[in-house]
Amino acid sequence: MEKKKILLGMSGGVDSTYAASKLISLGYYVEGAVLKMSGSTDIEGAKKASENVGIKLNIIDCEKEFKECVIDNFVSEYLKARTPNPCIVCNRTVKFFSLCRFAKENGFDTVATGHYSRVLYNKENGRYYIGLAADMKKDQSYVLWRLSQEELSMLWFPMSDEIKEDIKQISEELSLVPKNMKESQEICFILGNDHTEYIEEYLGKKIPEGDFTDVDGNILGKHKGIVRYTIGQRKGLGISLGKHAFVLSVNACDNTVTLGDEDGLFKTEFDISDIVFQKREYKVGETAELSVKIRYAAKPVRCTVCFGEGKAHITTDIPVRAITPGQSAVFYESDGVIFGGFIV
Q1: Strands across the sheet with 246-251, in order?
Q2: What proportions of the chain, in percent to the nearest 5, are helix, strand and coil?
Q3: What predicted TM-score, i.e. pTM, was given to this entire model?
Q4: Is the pLDDT of residue 154 over 80?
């Protein structure tokens, strides 16, 4: 019987390397694929990892798509006073899109990655959806809410039942990766994670200064450009008010950053747009009682969702801190993702 062919996204890191080793041990034919998305892509690391586990590595050039879909969006969102999550944008428009396309064109049965998550199937309506990983400290369901039904139907996450600390120890013992290997950086295309410097270099100009104001519109001082600030920020403001001050809002129209007490960060209502349904769909006018996460590391809170046309209004049971435009709101039931959208 012919072995099932799996295309595995390879980064050169612990998770994808271990996933390759695991799939091979289960008897599958595995080839790796590294996506060349920018000058920061660790092609050599992916090559070494592939050699360590003895699989062929395919290099897929995605630089054009990555610039147009991820980098351009990243810069544009910050200039609109929104705080983007480029990984979520990349997963839908570049990473999984490119892996699935390559797999279909080259006769692979399945696409796999080293994400800590799982794909589940809703028998009631025939829809696929992202389920929670066994290791909830590493669960990555939050960043996968935008994947299409076609992509979900092709995916397998072999790390779904693994525990990260165990994987690191096993990988070092088997010499799959170097000891004490560092985790990947927060934003893969920005070395050093200084997004302001990156945006200014990208635009070829400095971001203009503007006014810090209080909630009543009184000018408190000068800020150094709206891209430096995000909702909830306290450190690095560059202004002394004699007490702790937090960023309550950022306004691109009048180039102001509003500061205030931490109490002003807690809200119980917000809106989302660009909804992508996974486990089930909802019609305009329907409501639902679900749990929502408004950032990757946030704890889920119970909420009521009222659906409109491509958008929804959310009311949380308890006040939520620093609801940030541009970030994702992902909605869950006990086993996985129902849908997600961008906070507006």
Answers
A1: 219-223, 210-213, 256-260, 246-251
A2: 30, 30, 40
A3: 0.94
A4: yes
pLDDT tier for residue 108 given thresholds of 50, 70 and 90: very high
Show which residues are catalytic.
90, 188
Looking at residue 1, what is its pLDDT? 40
Given a cut of 90, whether residue 33 has pLDDT beyond it is: yes
- Separation CA 160–CA 57 (nearest Å): 23
Exposure letters 130-148 (e unless 16+ CB within 10 A, then b): bbbbebeebbbbbbbbbbe
Beta bridge partners of 277: 339
Percent of the chain with pLDDT over 70: 96
Calculate the CA 19 to chain-centre distance. 20
- β pairing state of 110-112 and 210-213: unpaired
Is 277 a residue whose pLDDT tops 60? yes
C-alpha 113/C-alpha 20 separation (Å) is 9
Which of 246, 239, 250 is closest to 266 using CA atoms? Answer: 246
Strands, DSSP E only, in the chain? 5-9, 29-36, 57-61, 110-112, 118-122, 127-131, 155-156, 210-213, 219-223, 246-251, 256-260, 266-277, 287-293, 301-307, 311-321, 328-333, 336-343
